[in-house]
Write a structure and sequence with these properties.
8 helices; Purple Acid Phosphatase, chain A, domain 2; alpha/beta; 30% helix; nine-stranded mixed sheet; globular
């Protein structure tokens, strides 16, 4: 086993001087990822926080250290975030095919399923609409397994080190909530958690890509949610839930922040949304591409379904 190039105390002193994994990596001749790993190990070992100059919001340490949050500490790379797929048996939408295409093209470091992949119609808190027929829980689990399995395979072929993260949505949560409330004696039984059925994905309520960028299923509601999310949180925030596929910006003395809605991987007028009674919905089918440069988020990019055979990205129509 190779000895570290500096002791823990020397590393802590270096961090206090530079407060930048990139700068320390240059000093030590290491990969920045190894510097970040050493930092995390030292924080856990000594129960201390080594703040970064990239973190312009030090008061967020408590949120980031929440045991239910996932911290990536990314410096550079691409993150693809899709949301609200509400996967149904034998249905592969244009946006879904576009997602596979963009994974092949962009080879992301991180792929985030930002909630509500599992529709869970039969466990809904809402009453049934007439005599409607909905897929069974088993059928929906199989639909998710098939769709996410293809996404997993495509992502691993594009980048074998890709991280697969699932931020839990309200529809996803119905599965465990129903079991916990109706049959609490099943606590700990394998299969009683949704994550038991999708072991390749890391489940979390929120994913902090950087100290200033959080990905989670939902926060504020309503037509102005993306704006209110970034004003209320103080960081850039990527959410799903509202299916609107849009980007809002907010600037103040702390700089620029971005509020992003991932849209829906489903078709806005598909059967699982019959509760909308056929009314027009301000929803768009697509997903989001995030690019990080030296720990900073570049302008978020939308990938939108253009027609049944094409997606719209960076001013081009891409056949899928």
């Amino acid at each position: 086993m190779a000895h570290p190039r500096v002791t823990d105390n020397e590393f802590i002193e270096l961090w206090r001087i530079h407060q930048s994994p990139k700068d320390i990596a240059e000093v030590l001749g290491l990969d920045p990822a190894k510097v970040l790993k050493r930092r995390r190990n030292i924080e856990r070992k000594y129960n201390i926080a080594l703040d970064s100059k990239l973190n312009r919001y030090p008061h967020l340490n408590a949120a980031q250290k929440n045991p239910q949050a996932l911290n990536l500490d990314m410096l550079n790379g691409t993150i693809i975030v899709f949301s609200d797929a509400h996967f149904q048996p034998a249905v592969h939408t244009t946006a879904y095919r576009g997602l596979l295409k963009m994974i092949e093209m962009l080879k992301p470091k991180v792929l985030v399923c930002n909630g509500d992949a599992f529709d869970n119609a039969q466990m809904s808190r809402h009453p049934a609409i007439g005599w409607e027929e909905t897929p069974t829980v088993v059928q929906e689990l199989m639909a998710c397994d098939i769709a996410l399995g293809e996404i997993e395979d495509t992502a691993k072929k594009a980048n074998r080190n890709v991280k697969l993260i699932w931020t839990i949505g309200n529809h996803d949560a119905r599965f465990e909530s129903r079991i916990a409330n109706v049959m609490p004696e099943l606590r700990g039984v394998k299969g009683a958690r949704l994550s038991d059925h999708f072991p390749k994905w890391q489940f979390t309520w929120s994913c902090w890509a950087t100290p200033n960028l959080v990905i989670k299923h939902r926060f504020k509601s309503g037509i102005h949610a993306t704006h209110n999310n970034i004003v209320a949180s103080g960081v850039s925030m990527v959410t799903g839930h509202l299916h609107s596929l849009k980007v809002n910006a907010w600037s103040d003395y702390n700089g620029d922040r971005w509020g992003v809605d991932c849209g829906t991987l489903a078709e806005p007028y598909s059967k699982q949304f019959d509760y909308c009674e056929g009314n027009p919905v301000n929803w768009r089918s697509g997903f989001v591409v995030l690019t990080l440069k030296d720990g900073q988020l570049l302008t978020p990019e939308l990938v939108r379904k253009f027609d049944d055979d094409h997606i719209d990205f960076r001013g081009q129509l891409i056949k899928v």
